[in-house]
Specification:
414 residues, alpha+beta, TIM Barrel, 11 helices, Amidohydro-rel, EC 3.5.4.2
């Protein structure tokens, strides 16, 4: 989506090739896409968007013929805001699709996935049958698959889900490929183990261990205060706010401020082996000590870390590299919780039940470090994503509205 800011020629040509193949161009149009930019997106052939945070944004995209994929994830809770009262403004809901987006394993266990979206949609005033359309035929039609999927009709493939009711959408039975695979609250088949290709393993190439020095903000001269740019994360959303704050300088180093919840954040490139590190300041994570890091960092999936001291920032990054991917919480040079993600640094190779236990334990460790975020690692994973307002990636701090990299330090004062 940043390409729309400059009408990048390569992107335009890519859109043209996709249209010639009669394929969909799916949009990632954040709040920075206002009237003119939405017009540009529609002109280039963007057919949908799953980034609407407000109902106004959803209606603007709908008015340009786009399918609105209504999102409800662990760190992107937008369904109620998007659909609440929508029937007063839109009579035909066939251009709306339900999409759970990124979900924590704990949310899947406790709330469900698409069934959770269905319940929320009905609570927001959508008729149950219209909600079911949003979860089935609307999706199939948007992707041009309605001749094969999306309805229980002759000549189409369909895994059948039998529901107990149209309010809670509790699943009574699932039939797949003609076989009953779930009934009486039990799975009726043995899952086939997945063989992970070798190229998906050992994907981290860091030629050196990082040290505390990599995360320090050194300044020259006698300045005692620094004006800095701060990312303000938002619990339950993937967007952030752009803040200016003042921090103390001691012994030539800009210091964080735990009382104001201003921590350090950094992204470490993990594919080329250089150990390149960009860093900045962030608030809202609430850590009073230690650090947390993850190799799930949209969309390049480098290592991203936030912490209350430089030693633990370095230790957390090195631990992620040692694990060849995962999530960690550390304190005082000790691992307090970890989840291994050896498959490309993105996926686990354990059962869902084991993963649930591992992630639950990790979240407890993060809370002990001081964070009150509902989904700290999911929130952290989106701090690299170039949607408004201020984000960070391997190249530095990104002002998304201006589509330019900016220095974390604005000015120094004696």
């Amino acid at each position: 989506s940043p390409y729309f800011f400059s009408s990048h020629q390569d992107f335009i040509e890519a859109c043209q090739r996709v249209k010639k193949l009669n394929l969909n161009i799916e949009g990632h149009l954040g709040p920075n896409f206002k009237e003119r930019r939405l017009d540009q997106a529609a002109y280039f052939g963007v057919s949908s968007c799953h980034e609407s945070i407000t109902q106004e944004e959803a209606l603007q995209k709908l008015s340009r013929g786009m399918t609105v994929i209504v999102r409800e994830g662990s760190a992107a809770k937008n369904l109620v805001e998007s659909l609440g009262g929508i029937k007063e403004k839109v009579k035909d809901t066939r251009k709306f699709v339900l999409g759970p987006d990124d979900l924590e394993v704990m949310d899947i266990f406790h709330r469900g996935e698409i069934d959770h979206c269905l319940r929320l949609a009905v609570d927001a005033g959508i008729h149950p049958l219209e909600a079911l359309q949003m979860a089935t035929i609307n999706s199939a039609q948007h992707f041009g698959l309605e001749d094969r999927l999306g309805s229980v009709t002759p000549g189409r493939y369909a895994d059948l889900v039998l529901l107990e009711d149209l309010e809670e959408f509790k699943v009574a039975m699932v039939i797949s490929a003609g076989e009953v695979v779930y009934a009486d609250h039990e799975i009726k088949y043995d899952p086939v183990p997945i063989q992970v290709p070798d190229f998906c393993l050992n994907s981290f190439k860091l030629n050196r261990k990082l040290s505390a020095e990599d995360f320090k903000f050194r300044v020259e001269g006698s300045a005692r205060k620094a004006q800095v740019r701060v990312i303000e994360a938002v619990d339950g959303q993937i967007t952030s706010f752009y803040r200016n704050e003042f921090l103390d300088i001691k012994h030539g180093e800009i210091k964080i401020d735990l009382e104001r919840d201003i921590l350090k954040i950094a992204v470490v490139e993990r594919y080329q082996g250089e150990g390149r590190c960009s860093k900045g300041f962030i608030r809202s994570f609430g850590l009073k000590r230690g650090a947390i890091a993850t190799s799930v960092a949209h969309d390049e999936h480098n290592i991203i870390v936030v912490g209350a001291n430089d030693q633990d920032l370095a230790f957390a990054v090195n631990e992620i590299a040692r694990l060849q991917g995962g999530l960690v919480a550390v304190d005082g040079g000790e691992v307090k919780g970890r989840v291994k993600l050896p498959v490309a640094g993105l996926m686990a190779n354990v059962s869902a039940e084991q993963l649930y236990q591992d992630v639950s334990s990790l979240h407890r460790a993060v809370k002990e470090l001081g964070s009150s975020l509902e989904s700290p690692f999911m929130t952290l994973s989106f701090i690299c994503l170039p949607v408004p307002e201020l984000k960070i990636d391997k190249n530095g701090l990104l002002d998304v509205y201006r589509n330019t990299y900016v220095d974390p330090v604005i000015d120094l004062f004696d």
